[in-house]
Amino acid sequence: MTPLKRIIITDKKHSLPFSKGLLAKSLTAAGISPKQAYHIAELVEAHLRKNDKLTVTSKVLKKVILQNITASAGEEKTEKYKNWQALGALDKPLIILIGGATGVGKSTIASEIAHRLGINRLTSTDSIREVMRVIFSTDIAPALQESSFNAAKAIRTPVDERMDP
């Protein structure tokens, strides 16, 4: 049995082999289930092989991908995928701010979102707080030098005792 020839994706600067796994991963980031994403990736590969397109431009590949998403998952998922791809094409960094009370799982959620979106640089509030502690003295920001649980004790502005800090 002869091995399948690689499908090569080309653009103006680069050529890379087509990967069902990478395509499926990008589809899951757009909200398509992993099983359906891999199925769509298989359909895309089959379409390219059926038409003997072993070298294809990224533009043509995108068209085939969008057609298969629409056919398999619907127009809504196609729009989500387009939006996800547009987000990745931005020349500015993506900043996601997650807020909440202490101990509710902000860092856990942030790590999961980063993993799903393929974000490899994540800065936790603990890291930011440590940097700020070095920059700002106790005189300037006394609450910053305290634990989050005890920060209310360092606030200089009088707080009504009936209020829960």
Automatic annotation (TrEMBL):
Signal peptide: none
Listed name of the protein: ATP-cone domain-containing protein
Species of provenance: marine sediment metagenome
